[in-house]
Amino acid sequence: MNDQNGDKVNIAGSLRNTLMISLIGGALVLAVILYLVVRTYAAQIAQSTQDRILSASVTSILDAAAIRNEALSVELPYSAFSILSTQADDRFFYAIHQDGRFLSGYEHMVFTETPNGQMKFYAGRYDGSDLRIATGSRRLVGANGQTTLTVSVAQGQQSLAGVLNRISRNAGLLGFGFFALMTLLSLWLTYATIAPLTRLAASVQRRGPEDLRPVAAPVPAEMAPLVGSLNSFMRRLAHSLDQSEEFIAEAAHRVRTPLATVRSYAETTLQRVDKLENRQALRAMVRAIDESSRAAGQLLDHAMITFRADHLRRSKLDLAEVTGDLIRAMRPLADMKDVDLDLSATQQVWIEGDAILLQNALRNLVDNALKYAPAESVIQIIVSDDPANIRVQDSGPGFPQDEIPDLSTRFTRGSNAAETIGSGLGLTIAQDVAVAHGGTLILTNRKEGGACATLSF
Amino acid sequence: MRNIILLIFLAAANLVQAQDWEDRKLFGPSNAQQVLRVLSSTDVVYLDTVLSDFVRTVDGAQIEYLVTGTADINDIIRKDPDAYDVVISSAMDLQVKLTNDGFAKPLRTIERPDWMQWRQSLFGFSAEPAAIVVNTAAFKDLGLPRTRQELISLFRAEPDLFRDKIATYDIRRSGLGYFFATQDARASETFWRFTEVIGNLGTRLYCCSGEMITAVAKGDVLVAYNVLGSYAATQALADPRIQVIVPEDFATTMMRTIFVTRNTSRPKLAESFVAHLLEAAESREPVDRLQLPPLESEAGRELQKVVPLEPSLMIYLDRLSRKAFTLEWESAIIQ
Ligand SMILES: Nc1ncnc2c1ncn2[C@@H]1O[C@H](COP(=O)(O)OP(=O)(O)OP(=O)(O)O)[C@@H](O)[C@H]1O
Ligand SMILES: [Mg+2]
């Protein structure tokens, strides 16, 4: 049998892997996006909070400015600085300019022009600290014309960085939690999706070769077409298998019966015909009918064997018993040729196999021995164990030595077979049966003369 | 040639020495491997035991303790920040600004609550209220006022007794006086009213706590307002002519603060010195204690109203603010 090749399935990809990779991959991408969005958003909020505080500080200083006695007076409100206190004790700097001229605060701060009433925010760096700077200005009108006051307040970002770190950590945890949850969900989802497929495959795999019942267990809608096709395929297969077996038996019967009728007519006619040429023609006719009948029988047997070998139904058998049954059935045939069938089966020999096939193989071997060995001889049939085997020996001329390798080929007859009726399928059948049971057919010639055919399992 | 170089060298050395310190004292062995240069506005007497203790516990360490005024300290550090290892000053605002400007080094091993430290670099170690010092004899019959309100009532009741007999800091000349005044103004509305009242009575303005205390003791003035309590208390122990009152409505209380300079060449020694000083300041044992009023527990702090170490203190250093505040103060006190 070539089951090995038949079971080989062409595999491209895996549903489970595809599903799992796309689900988990998707979860990962989503988790990263979630992390980035939360972080960016939080960072913006944190920055805008700092900006608002800086802006409040700048505004409160600007608002404190007044022109008194034609001179600019600014008394910085305490709150302008106190709101700048942070958890991380960030340092801060400030500068007050009047019309671009430095007035008070930190002189190293660069003057930045800002339109009246607007607030500018920008980043800066001083003495190893990252700074966020807010600048605003206000126009004051006095008796001597107008003047513009510009206030810049800069604050370190250490506290903000701390907040951002905390947020990042939380966002990271959130992303990771989401990912872990999605991964679990993906695993479950993949399992749930694949499970019906796995169940179906397992249930089909568990069946014996002859179990061709339709799949009855419920399956998901998407699998319905596949299971439907499978069921109808199996139904057709079962149907055609049943039909084949019946057909073979029927065919043998149908061919043999009319041939037997024709043969009996030909023989009757032979009795009545005297003319030599007519008698010869009739004899040739009878022989041709015999050949056809034999060929038809052997062909159908061979078909039957091929069929049964494909669906081998094994059962525990005693080889000695199987052989005994067959010899008993063949004894009348042997008696007609005065041939003694000598069965030697001293012990039970158990094998797993199909009795019908084994008897068929054995019948062909005994048949050959009867056909090619002389009358009044003895045919030995020996059943023995380790390994289980049946030997059929005769004392005839033996196989034509140089043709032995070819004799088991289909329709091949030996050079010694010219006189006998046959189709050249007997040894083929025996060999096919042996191979179906995992054994061999060995043909040898005996030293003391005669053929020896061994079915070994 | 060599002589000239030597001469220049000596001149340069002289220049460095040219700084005249109010006081200069060495602690520890003269052959020490490491010398810790401490720049301070606090008189040696107050820290004597702590400094001696420190050089005794640490092998091979010497402390050079240099005393000068708070404004001076600020200038010196800004000009020559690497020449000193530790800075102690009673001017909280200046100290905060020095720290904000990056002159202080964060000390990671020292843990103190928020209000006692700033940027993990500047640490407070004493709580010293602004007190009222009165002449004992003059107040014998009047009874001691406990709050500013009572003092105002007293002034109103006896204007002739107190005319030209009230002293306070001239905030234009004294950093500490300016600091106390601004904190008072922030803490209570009473301050301006009080200032106007004493302005009306003709107040005498002084540069320092010591002079005010002496004046009260002599009877030149009868009341001195906003005198550094720790100094006054020390004086009052030895001089029965004066009495110290810490007002009960609120007492502006400043902290002396300490920091290690950013580029000190002896960071470990400096840090352990700060730790030692802070521990001594908080010690319950009178023997180990600083000769300064310690920072009290939370409950005590509530009453004392210690000015917390915050960057907002810098506001009073602003030129414009100072100008505006001084103008207002002048118009109230000089009439
Ligand atoms: N016992 C035997 N002694 C001598 N020759 C044999 C023997 N058995 C088989 N042969 C040779 O082997 C050939 C093939 O045998 P096989 O049984 O396959 O064909 P067949 O006997 O000719 O025809 P059939 O299909 O009717 O059996 C025979 O034609 C014969 O030449
Ligand atoms: Mg045959």
Automatic annotation (TrEMBL), chain A:
Domain Histidine kinase, chain residue ranges per copy: 250-457
GO CC terms of this entry: plasma membrane
Task: Please write the reaction equations for the catalytic activity of this protein.
Answer: ATP + protein L-histidine = ADP + protein N-phospho-L-histidine
Q: Which InterPro entries match?
A: 2CSK_N, HAMP_dom, HATPase_C_sf, HATPase_dom, His_kinase_dom, HisK_dim/P_dom, HisK_dim/P_sf, Sig_transdc_His_kin-like_C
Where is this gene product found? Answer: Membrane
Q: What is its EC number?
A: 2.7.13.3
Show where the HAMP domain sits: 191-242
| Entry's Gene Ontology molecular function annotations | phosphorelay sensor kinase activity
UniProt main location, coarse = membrane
Return the broad EC class: transferase
Transmembrane region(s): 20-38, 171-191
- Which of UniProt's keywords are assigned here? Kinase, Membrane, Phosphoprotein, Transferase, Transmembrane, Transmembrane helix, Two-component regulatory system
The protein depicted here goes by the name histidine kinase
UniProtKB/TrEMBL annotation, chain B:
Keywords, A to Z, come to: Signal
Decide whether keyword Signal is in the record. Answer: yes
Question: Known SUPFAM superfamilies for this protein?
Answer: Periplasmic binding protein-like II
Where does it sit, as one GO cellular component term?
A: outer membrane-bounded periplasmic space
Lineage, top-rank taxon, reads Bacteria
The signal peptide, as residue positions, is 1-18
The name of this protein is: ABC transporter substrate-binding protein
Q: Which organism is it from?
A: Tritonibacter litoralis
